Design the sequence.
């Protein structure tokens, strides 16, 4: 084994090639190229095959990372693909957008002295190769069962659950209010992090596997929860969280102050070549504008990087804490800075100024005060520090909350937490309504794709147990 592995002592960490910033700004294509076979094999061979693999432990999906790194280093790529797919429904997507620096790679044991194995890039290489080699095939269940499951939401939680249920032979229907399946994978996350055909081939495969998609179908408009419960033997709610957190400052009602997701959805639709009046009439197009994005998370990063690609005159990211304390990924901040985004640390909006539409943001400087209950230093305004920055388009990226699902679904009996997330029994993921399960962001609050996949898989497993019990009762 040592011959093909443990190369971290002699071989340095290498990332796939990154396109130059100037070239990146010209399109919405991904930033990183694919490893070639030699680089993927070499980088996989840096794995130390340690006794307690912290990469595996810190992966929400419990991916068998050392195993598929070993198979890659040995050139056994199809087996590596099968191993990676046994715990993950979309490994090539996780390879692209998981925050590996906080999960697997951040916990790699060689990280301290030798730089982590580039796990995400190898994962992407393995599964992209599987797609091009034709190893990823539609699901053909061994049996066809007569029970059906209705899934509300075609994001990663809903899609992963659908795949697991279909493998077992259940009839699966997915309902989504958008015209394309994928949830935030298609309409939230921009193409420069995740190209859309990568998502499309996954959803296409599910369609070819016999899963029925009902798109442009909103629960609460086309049907209520009760209608779906009549139709199906079990229901999974996987609707995500979409209501942007507001900001209470003077002038917030002015024109051209928009929610991050409105902005990103429109931009992603344009990427598909759709006609989008709000963009086509210039309202949600950053071209030639002074753009100010407020927030410091990954959504804010996606907005600033979208705005520079649309040809904004200037793009500033206003964040109330400092670089070390921002929630967004450090890698994404670096990418954004290379692309011309200006980060204004320790600053918060005091007011928006303008006649009918925003013309400037009055900001004040902040400093980090005493730690709050969570141990995080709370930002506080510095008196008399106000200053103005020009702004024709302000984007609020302050986090997301659930919609009022009981009202929307016409189901006041559905129990939700005080934050509006669906309350489930954490062992079974069933809500207080018999046969109605929930998974993903709508249970956890805004989280990560890898957790949505995990939840979808766990919910599918509970739904299978539930359906078997129901069947046994009838027999
Ligand atoms: C801008 C942005 C960037 C992100 N970047 C990353 C990243 O880089 N890495 C990462 O791991 N995570 C990232 N995330 C988080 C990640 O996208 C989510 O955690 C994940 O998509 C949640 O999956 P989900 O299936 O629970 O919900 P979603 O992906 O939100 O899917 C929910 C689906 O339900 C549908 N729906 C909602 N209500 C109804 C209804 N009433 N009727 C029918 N359909 C309905 C929606 O249309 C949607 O398709 C990002 C999030 C955002 C907003």
Sequence:
């Amino acid at each position: 084994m040592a011959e093909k592995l443990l190369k971290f002592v002699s071989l340095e960490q290498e990332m796939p090639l990154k396109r130059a910033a100037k070239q990146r700004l010209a399109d919405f294509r991904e930033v990183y190229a694919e490893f070639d076979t030699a680089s993927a094999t070499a980088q996989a061979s840096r794995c130390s095959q340690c006794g307690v693999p912290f990469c595996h432990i810190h992966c929400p999906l419990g991916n068998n990372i050392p195993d598929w790194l070993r198979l890659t280093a040995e050139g056994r790529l199809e087996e590596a693909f099968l191993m990676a797919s046994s715990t993950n429904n979309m490994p090539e997507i996780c390879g692209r957008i998981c925050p590996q620096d906080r999960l697997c790679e951040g916990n790699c044991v060689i990280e301290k002295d030798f730089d982590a194995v580039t796990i995400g890039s190898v994962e992407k290489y393995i599964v992209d190769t599987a797609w091009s080699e034709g190893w990823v095939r539609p699901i053909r269940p061994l049996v066809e069962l007569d029970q059906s499951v209705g899934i509300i939401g075609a994001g990663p939680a809903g899609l992963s659950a659908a795949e697991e249920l279909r493998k077992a032979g259940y009839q699966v229907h997915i309902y989504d209010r958008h015209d394309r399946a994928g949830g935030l994978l298609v309409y939230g996350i921009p193409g420069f992090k995740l190209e859309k055909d990568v998502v499309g081939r996954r959803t296409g495969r599910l369609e070819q596997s016999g899963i029925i998609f009902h798109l442009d179908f909103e629960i609460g408009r086309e049907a209520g929860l009760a209608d779906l419960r009549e139709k199906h033997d079990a229901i999974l709610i996987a609707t995500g969280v979409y209501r942007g957190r507001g900001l209470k400052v003077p002038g917030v009602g002015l024109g051209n102050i928009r929610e991050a997701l409105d902005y990103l959805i429109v931009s992603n639709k344009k990427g598909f070549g759709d006609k989008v009046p709000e963009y086509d009439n210039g309202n949600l197009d950053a071209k030639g504008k002074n753009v100010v994005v407020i927030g410091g998370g990954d959504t804010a990063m996606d907005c600033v990087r979208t705005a520079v690609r649309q040809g904004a005159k200037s793009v500033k990211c206003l964040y109330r804490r400092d670089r070390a304390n921002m929630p967004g990924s450090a890698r994404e901040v670096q990418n954004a800075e290379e692309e011309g985004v200006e980060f204004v640390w320790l600053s918060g909006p005091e007011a928006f100024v303008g006649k009918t539409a925003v013309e400037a943001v009055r900001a004040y400087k902040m400093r980090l005060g005493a730690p709050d209950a969570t141990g995080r230093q709370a930002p506080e305004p510095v008196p008399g520090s106000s200053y103005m920055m020009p702004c024709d388009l302000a984007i609020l990226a302050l986090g997301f909350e659930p919609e009022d699902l009981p009202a929307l679904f016409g189901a006041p009996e559905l129990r939700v937490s005080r934050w509006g997330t669906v309350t489930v029994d954490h062992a079974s993921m069933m809500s207080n309504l018999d046969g109605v399960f929930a998974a993903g962001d709508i249970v956890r609050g805004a989280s990560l794709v890898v957790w949505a996949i995990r939840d979808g898989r766990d919910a599918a497993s509970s739904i299978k147990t539930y359906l078997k019990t129901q069947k046994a009762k009838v027999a």
